[in-house]
Amino acid sequence: MTKMTLGSHPHMLGFEQLERLLERTAKSGNEGYPPFNIEQTSDFSYRITLAVAGFAENDLQITVEDRTLVIRGRQTDDGDGRVFLHRGIAARQFQRTFVLADSVEVGDAIIENGLLHVDLTRSKPETVVQTISIRKG
Description:
Layout: H1 16-26, E1 36-42, E2 45-51, E3 60-65, E4 68-74, E5 93-99, E6 104-112, E7 115-122
Antiparallel strand pairs: 1-2, 2-7, 3-4, 4-5, 6-7
């Protein structure tokens, strides 16, 4: 028995790209840091919230690359001349990626109380009806 995929299903035409997108998302390498929430704030809007305590505004970068939202954090090690008896808070970096649908746009990004909020909006889908004429061959 062969495995049925989106691209090979007889009623799902043109979804090969979606299948590749799902594979790419599964392999994106997102670790568990930093933790995040995704909430639906209305019928057509979402908010991604990342816990970025210890990161300044300058340490964070948000880009959209090929319909992928990429959030990067890079802290600098400010331990020069300091003597730590215990160092449990390390300067670390991260990269979180979120694949966006064609209808989703990135809005505002706000940092407050150690949380980075990124707002997304999805455009309302338009109903399109197309009549195809039939001609004799």
